[in-house]
Design goal:
Elements: H1 20-33, H2 41-45, H3 51-62, H4 73-86, H5 90-96, H6 102-119, H7 132-135, H8 137-145, H9 158-185, H10 196-204, H11 254-262, E1 271-272, E2 287-288
Antiparallel strand pairs: 1-2
The chain binds a DNA duplex through α3 and α6.
Length: about 350
DNA sequence: AATACCTACAACCGCCTTTCG
DNA sequence: TCGAAAGGCGGTTGTAGGTAT
């Protein structure tokens, strides 16, 4: 227990990238003698390296059966599938991918697959749709409002905070948009996933100190709620199968978020102006909000009400800002001069096929 | 052209488990 | 049975090359 590093006793061993000469010495020695004891190998092979370093160099790079080059789609899918069941057990995953090393798979995961999943709105840790987008809302809104407070005591760059809050709000809004958009089509396909309605319900219901006023339920056909099976999943963020729309970057989420945060509700057809927070999007950019999905779960769902807004789904490995850079904002279906109907090309069937106006608040 | 920033990946570090005398 | 040595694993860091400003 508490063993010292294997090479600590020899401070002169070389570290850093291997040279071709060192590689040759190592390969030649192993071909002749096998690796035997890794600790004794460097001395026997004439290498000024730690045995552990030799082992890693051999197993991760020099071994003849290592397959190099890009990962195929099949390999990608297999890694994702295995990671979903095994977690970060890279060595176990590597045993299923012939010729790939655990280190290579781990690196590929961290540099490619993790980002890929994030861009699709999937938590790479849980392999389930991300919930932290909504969970972080209260704190981020608080940060955004710092600029309006006459505190003046903190030596913080308020503009920087605003920028951060703006960026986060865009992402949060994306999450809301996707939740709302998904809710319209979800009954057709409802694979296992998080309970988004639970999240929205707990987040938005007035009883839970949420964001929306109770009266917003008026006009919603609650009898159709049975169509919701509690397992809506998020669609990929970069779904661009819909007609071209103005880029999201041309509108501001401030108004919408402010309304959500205030608990005053958003009347149907209500055109929200942006500058509530004083640093919003372009002047005159308006958005019209559809009704949020009705709260399905009562305020006794404490998951989203805990201090700090952390849900049990959230992990340190996926912060609110993760994947922000890779998000394709231009694919978010929000129209600056119209309403969100463009993003809801399909009728809101889960509420009422005959009268889409029920999607809007009175 | 110079610099800053980003990305990918090889390599290292430290802890845990297994093996062996 | 115990403890040290060795191997293995996952997380993290360093760096080279590419790209943007």
């Amino acid at each position: 227990m508490g063993r010292s590093p294997c090479c600590e006793q020899d401070a002169d061993v070389k570290k850093g990238p291997w040279t071709p000469e060192e590689d040759k010495l190592l390969v030649d020695y192993i071909h002749k003698h096998g690796h035997g004891s890794w600790r004794r190998l460097p001395k026997n092979a004439g290498l000024n390296r730690c045995g552990k370093s030799c082992r890693l160099r051999w197993t991760n790079y020099l071994r003849p059966d290592i397959k190099r080059g890009d990962f195929s789609k099949a390999e990608e899918d297999l890694i994702i599938q295995l990671h979903a069941t095994l977690g970060n057990k890279w060595s176990s995953i590597a045993t299923k991918l012939k010729g790939r090393t655990d280190n290579e798979i781990k690196n590929y995961w961290n540099t490619h697959l993790r980002k890929k999943l994030l861009s699709q709105g999937i938590d790479p840790v849980t392999h389930r749709p991300r919930t932290d987008l909504l969970a972080g809302l209260p704190n981020l809104l608080a940060a955004a409002n710092l600029g309006g407070a006459a505190t003046g005591q903190l030596p913080l760059d308020i503009n920087a905070i605003k920028l951060q809050a703006d960026a986060a709000k865009f992402q949060i809004l994306q999450g809301l948009v996707r939740v709302l958009a998904t809710a319209t089509a979800a009954p057709a396909a409802a694979p296992a996933g998080i309970d988004l309605m639970t999240i929205l319900g707990a987040t938005l219901t007035p009883n839970s100190g949420g964001l929306l006023g109770q009266h917003q339920l008026a006009g919603v056909d609650l009898s159709r709620l049975g169509q919701y099976d509690g397992n809506y999943s998020l669609p990929p963020l970069t779904n661009s199968s819909q007609p071209t729309r103005p880029p999201m970057s041309s509108m501001s989420p401030d108004g919408l978020l402010e309304r959500f945060a205030s608990g005053t509700g958003v009347p149907s057809g209500d055109v929200l102006s942006s500058p509530e927070l004083g640093h919003g999007g372009p002047r005159g950019s308006n958005i019209t909000t559809p009704v949020a999905p009705p709260p399905m779960v009562a305020a006794d769902d404490h998951q989203c009400n805990t201090p700090g807004g952390m849900s049990s789904e959230q992990t340190p490995a996926s912060s609110t800002f993760d994947g922000l850079a890779s998000l394709n904002l231009d694919d978010v279906d929000i129209n600056i001069d119209g309403c969100w109907t463009n993003m809801l090309l399909e009728p809101p069937v889960w509420l009422n096929n005959n009268n889409s106006s029920e999607m809007y608040l009175p």
